[in-house]
Amino acid sequence: MGFKLRNAEPRDVPDILRLVKELAKYEEMEDQVSLTEKELLEDGFGDTPFYRCILAEIPGEQSNDVPKVVGFAMYYFTYDPWTGKQLYLEDFFVMEEYRGNGIGSEILKQLSD
Q1: What is the pLDDT of residues 47-105, one digit of tens each?
Q2: Cα(50)–Cα(42) distance, rounded to whole angstroms?
Q3: Measured between alpha carbons, how far is 26 from 45 in angstroms, rounded to an integer?
Q4: Among 23, 42, 33, which residue's Cα sits nearest to residue 96?
Q5: What 3-state DSSP class applies to 41?
Q6: CA distance 46 to 39
Q7: Pairwise CA distance, residues 44 & 67, whole Å
Q8: Exposed e or buried b for every residue in 2-26, given b needs 16+ CB within 10 A?
Q9: CB of 71 within 8 A of CB of 91?
Q10: What does DSSP assign to residue 82?
């Protein structure tokens, strides 16, 4: 299965929230998600972003279809005065029907580069 990884853009906020909710459902905690698209947009794409996000997408079923976002990793950087910059992986999820295709491994590989 072909897939592509890319950095999230403001237009991806609905897909990011969809995947956050799918992850929460998987963890049986969906009632705890109170985040809105507006907050995700402001917090991730404002003047001082609080998070970054890598998305995994697959081609649309038809050649003229929009690609489908099927996985994500939400992360941010923190700083430790002893060791320096650290990446903190907050959330990581690949939709169940797309697991086993190397998507998660590639996301983690990209984060570790």
Answers
A1: 999 999 999 999 887 677 789 999 999 999 999 999 999 999 999 999 999 999 999 99
A2: 9
A3: 27
A4: 23
A5: helix
A6: 10
A7: 22
A8: ebebeebeeebbebbbebbebbbee
A9: no
A10: T
